[in-house]
Write a structure and sequence with these properties.
CATH class of one domain: Mainly Alpha
Number of helices: 31
Distance between the termini: 97 Å
Shape: globular
Largest sheet: 5 strands, mixed
CATH superfamily of one domain: Intergrase catalytic core
Radius of gyration: 35 Å
Structural class: alpha+beta
Strand content: 5-15%
């Protein structure tokens, strides 16, 4: 086997690769590009290496020039050999060593041979060089070879399309792609036509699939004689690039793309096969000398050259992806122009033509029809495509269509839906059926009229409901955590599954087979088991990665692709993908052997008792699993973010919120281009039946809903569902509301027993559950006097005394005092790469300084989903020179009406000065609008879980145990530090915005300080006391207690 060579082996004059740095160097300042941004424009002429003439280079010139351009682009050859590319084993001989090309090829065989040195598969290199020297074979084997087929009639074309075809033929003849048929030459001719080309114009097609069966012509087509396997070519897509941006987000990310001009025309065909590519136009006969659009084998043959180019780029150290002639990737902002210059020079050296007007680099680039924004890690459909998709779906569902659609319109609709599935992955389950539908009807021809089936109309209605409010945006966000779900089904007994691996199960369920699936295929039941598990556990794990283990390979493939031919299973798959979309779940599916799925199998056969995180809605109630769970983040370290587990390892009773969170808003600039606001999100709105429940006008219902915070609404929802489930199990008569005192008391008894089974019972928990039920009565305008009965209060007290209540102590966050704050900031500044990069480290630095100096609560400077009305925005800070620096807090825990409060930002020592750190952060942050978030991390949000995770990392680096710190640690630490330096309590209350003695709960005192106070009392001399030395009161003395 030939030895593998790297570009350094091919270019021996290049300098050695510098050693890898031990620590990452600080990245340069991010570009001041304020999103939303416009798509990047084509590069300026000076970006290209147009002053070079690669065709005139010799080998030495190529080695020096390409190596210099690669170094200028920051490319370094990889240390390990680059692996072979896919799609490189042809199903037929692609060249004839005795053949000759139909015309002179522009590709330079010596350049390709030089660039492909070291490719792992010599046979592939042999095929590439053979096609360049001898011409490519089309793989045809049929009766048309050597025969002169009569001239067919060309396809009908409009005047504009015919003009475009004539122009295309003239240009092709001038470039040598096409020539006139020679006298006496034999060729098989096919009709020509034109198809629309994006974004405008027409593309000429030599219809090598003519004649089709419905044409009833006693002849065969050229494509019919090309035998290819069913899955002979697997295309890459933009999904890989979006996944890269999701995993490795950087605000300094730019994108690049390169498009090859006259893509298929680069490959000259064998002269014998060129006789199969004849056509007739305007009384003249022509023969194509190069691959053309319409040939069955053209994509595979050209893709071999694309794969070779992709390997060459990777051998230089340029990570890339491609779809036929479209190459794309990501890079650092400063290197984009240099990469384009390198690509242009390399392609020119190989003989490839670059479409410079389509080759772009910048922060926002359109790739394969999708707008991708690197710095904000987002992707979206252009407004034109989104509006076209909406119109196509509405037209197909309209009453005028009568459930009928033309084949060409169906193809256009499916193409638009496919683009949309790159943005909303759940749409794949509602699009796959259209592919099968088109495939089954393709034999009827493009002029046929097709009828939409009931399932297809159901899929279109799903898309129509989504498109009504969906702005076409996808935010590329990392999962918040990862969980495992194991499921199984048994046709004779039911469904089962568990949360967590078999050795550490945290929850499990058993359920009967639904009535509508009784007697169904096992595939539908296996899919329903997955749906049941997600329905139970997905609401408590929004934004998580869910790894699903299934022992049925057909269901695994269906969940990976969203497609299965079995109708009942496909319907279940649709429901699964809807759940994934609603709860923003990242689904990963893997097959496991049945013997490794024993626990789920036992649950499906009703062998083990069901235990669930919420309890089955079909009846009964649930218990908690006593198993202690080991909950870890994807990195393997204990996660600091809140999960569905209590600190003791038990499951929380997390309520399910029955409404979809709104999607990010897409504004439009004056020039019509999309202006993405990925960090804004409206307040959670009421569910659809809310107005019907409470009555009144829409505004009345909306104001009533917003009278409570979303978190309180979620708590009420859970309590009401649990009460209704309990009432159903008791057989009480509907409606269950208003609840009587006796009914509420019986439910509290049940709740007390259930909560005690999970852990220590707290009276505050029972009171909160009762208060949630009372709040629901208030919403509905029902009498709630029975729920305020002293009898129920005494019942709660009795339950705690009988069942054993938890100790009455409140867990307090540990304080971050000023010395500890300095240690935390020192760790962040010393190693910014450990905290998400320099930009993220500056955001954390400024936020921590501001939180301490202004006595902020954790929820006042963080946000999971940004809303300018409730969270700190850039306009909240006033840092005008010569004026008092202020911070406006729009809403807080003690500000239910959202009136806001303005606090003064003090000035301090340089290392902890909030004003100085804010000025530095605002100068670096690319978000410049007043309504943009004040703080953000890679991914656009500033969630409390990520901020606390960064705080814990800094504390661990400083050698401080992390147990006990929370978002309140800054506020508690500021109060404690202020008291320790002698600040009066009244002043502390002023600084922290306290209006009562609750401020005293925030002032901590160490055990050493308490001991010192006790020592001072014991050591005080008797002369300092007014009590007699004997300690006994004199006769007649009256000691008055001090009030």
């Amino acid at each position: 086997m030939a030895s593998l060579a790297s570009p350094r082996d091919r270019f021996p004059d290049s300098p050695p690769r510098p050693p890898a740095p031990t620590a990452r160097q600080p990245s340069p300042e991010p570009p001041s590009i304020a999103p939303p941004r416009e798509p990047s424009a084509p590069p300026a002429p000076e970006w290209w290496s147009s002053h070079l003439d690669p065709v005139m280079w010799d080998a030495e010139d190529a080695r020096r020039e390409l190596d210099a351009l690669a170094r200028a682009a920051g490319l370094q050859p990889p240390d390990a050999p680059v692996p072979a590319r896919p799609n490189t084993t042809p199903p037929f001989p692609v060249f004839d060593p005795a053949g000759s090309p139909a015309t002179t090829s522009r590709l330079r065989p010596e350049a390709w041979a030089h660039a492909l040195q070291g490719y792992p598969d010599p046979a592939f290199v042999h095929n590439i060089l053979g096609m360049i020297k001898h011409g490519a074979k089309l793989g045809y084997d049929g009766p048309l070879r050597g025969s002169d087929r009569p001239v067919p009639r060309n396809h009908n074309m409009s005047g504009e399309a015919l003009t475009a075809v004539r122009t295309s033929v003239r240009e092709a003849c001038a470039k040598g792609f096409t020539r006139l048929k020679r006298p006496g030459e034999v060729s098989a001719q096919s009709p020509v036509g034109a198809v629309p080309k994006k974004p405008s114009g027409w593309r000429m097609i030599n219809d090598l699939s003519w004649p089709r069966t419905q044409d009833r012509v006693p002849s065969s087509s050229v494509n019919e004689g090309v035998q290819l396997p069913e899955r002979w070519l697997s295309y890459q897509s933009i999904d890989g690039l979006l996944d890269d941006l999701t995993v490795d987000f950087d605000a300094d990310t730019w994108l690049w793309k390169m498009d090859l001009k006259d893509a298929y025309r680069h490959v000259v065909v064998d002269a014998a096969d060129a006789a199969l590519l004849g056509f007739h136009l305007d009384g003249k006969d022509y023969v194509d000398c190069c691959l053309n659009f319409g040939g069955k084998s053209s994509p595979f043959i050209f893709n071999m050259f694309s794969e070779a180019l992709a390997w060459i780029l990777a051998s230089f150290g340029l990570r890339n992806r491609h779809l036929l002639d479209d190459f794309f990737g990501r890079c650092k902002a400063a290197r984009g122009p240099a990469i384009l210059r390198f690509l242009d020079a390399l392609c020119g050296y190989l003989g490839l033509s670059v479409a410079r007007h389509k080759s772009l680099t910048g922060p926002c680039v359109e790739i394969l029809g999708i707008m991708v924004d690197g710095p904000t890690a987002s992707a979206w459909l252009s407004p034109d495509k989104l509006e076209k998709l909406r119109w196509s779906v509405r037209s197909a569902l309209s009453r005028e269509s009568n459930d009928q659609i033309s084949f060409s319109a169906a193809e256009s609709l499916v193409g638009s839906l496919t683009d949309a599935t790159r943005i909303v992955a759940a749409g794949r389950a509602f699009t796959r059926g259209f592919y099968d539908w088109l495939t089954d009807n393709r034999h009827r021809g493009h002029r046929a009229t097709l009828r939409l089936s009931r399932d297809l109309k159901s899929d279109l209605r799903w898309w129509n409901n989504l498109l009504r409010k969906w702005p076409g945006v996808r935010l590329l966000r990392r999962p918040r955590g990862s969980i495992e779900i194991w499921t199984d089904a048994a046709t004779s007994s039911g469904l089962g599954g568990h949360l967590g691996p078999p050795e550490a199960v945290t929850a499990r369920f058993s359920a009967p087979v639904p009535d509508h699936l009784r007697g169904a295929n096992i595939m539908a039941l296996e899919a329903e088991a997955v749906h049941e598990a997600l329905q139970r556990w997905a609401p408590a794990h929004k934004g998580f990665r869910v790894v699903c283990r299934v022992d049925n390979q057909a269901v695994v493939n269906a969940l990976l692709t969203g497609r299965i031919r079995h109708r009942d299973t496909q319907r279940v798959v649709r429901r699964i993908f809807t759940l994934l979309h609603e709860h923003r779940i990242f689904l990963r599916v893997s097959w496991i052997a049945s013997e490794d799925n024993a626990v789920a199998d036992a649950l499906s056969r009703q062998v083990l008792a069901p235990v669930d995180i919420r309890g089955s809605r079909t009846g009964g109630h649930s218990r908690s699993v006593a198993t202690r769970a080991s909950w870890r983040s994807p990195t393997g370290r204990p996660s600091g973010r809140p999960t569905a587990l209590t600190p003791g390892g038990r499951l929380r009773d997390t309520p399910v919120v029955p409404y979809l969170p709104p999607l990010p808003r897409l504004d439009t600039a004056a020039n019509g281009l999309p202006r993405l606001r990925p960090f804004t999100q409206a307040l959670l709105g009421p569910p659809r039946n809310w107005q019907a429940l409470v009555g009144g006008s829409p505004d009345f219902a909306l104001f009533l809903w917003n009278g409570l915070s979303p978190s309180n609404r979620a708590r009420i929802e859970g309590a009401v569902h649990d009460f209704a489930d309990f009432a159903a199990t008791r057989g009480w008569t509907k409606p269950y509301f208003p609840a009587s005192e006796h009914q509420a008391g019986e439910w509290l008894v049940h709740e007390a027993k259930r909560l005690r089974a999970k852990g220590p019972l707290r009276a505050t928990t029972l009171r909160a559950r009762l208060q949630a039920l009372k709040s629901w009565h208030i919403d509905l305008g029902l009498d709630h006097s029975s729920l305020a009965s002293p009898r129920l209060a005494r019942l709660i007290t009795g339950a705690c005394r009988t069942l054993g209540a938890a100790p009455q102590h409140r867990k307090q966050a540990l304080p971050i005092t000023l010395p500890l704050l300095r240690r935390v900031l020192a760790e962040i500044r010393r190693r910014p790469t450990d905290f998400g990069g320099r930009v993220a480290a500056l955001a954390l630095d400024a936020a921590f300084c501001l939180a301490f100096a202004c006595f902020l609560r954790g929820g006042e400077f963080t946000h999971d989903t940004f809303d300018a009305r409730r969270h700190l925005r850039r306009g909240s800070v006033m840092l005008a020179p010569g004026a008092t620096a202020t911070l406006h807090i729009p809403a807080s825990k003690t500000d239910p009406h959202g009136g806001g409060v303005t606090v003064v930002i003090p000035e301090g020592p340089p290392d902890v000065c909030p004003r100085a750190r804010l000025r530095l952060w605002l100068a670096v942050s690319p978000l410049r609008g007043d309504n943009d978030p004040l703080f953000w991390l890679p991914g656009g949000r500033f969630p409390k879980s990520a901020v606390l995770d960064a705080l814990n990392r800094a504390l661990r680096s400083a050698g401080v145990p992390t147990d006990g710190f929370s978002g309140h640690s800054f506020r508690r630490g500021a109060a404690t530090w202020a008291a320790s330096v002698g600040t009066p309590v009244d002043d502390i209350m002023l600084l922290g915005r306290w209006k009562s003695a609750a401020a005293l709960k925030y002032i901590d005192i160490t055990p050493a300080a308490v001991g010192a106070l006790g020592h001072r009392v014991l050591s005080a001399p008797a002369s300092q006391s007014s009590i007699p030395a004997s300690g006994v009161p004199a006769p007649g003395d009256i000691w008055t207690p001090r009030v």
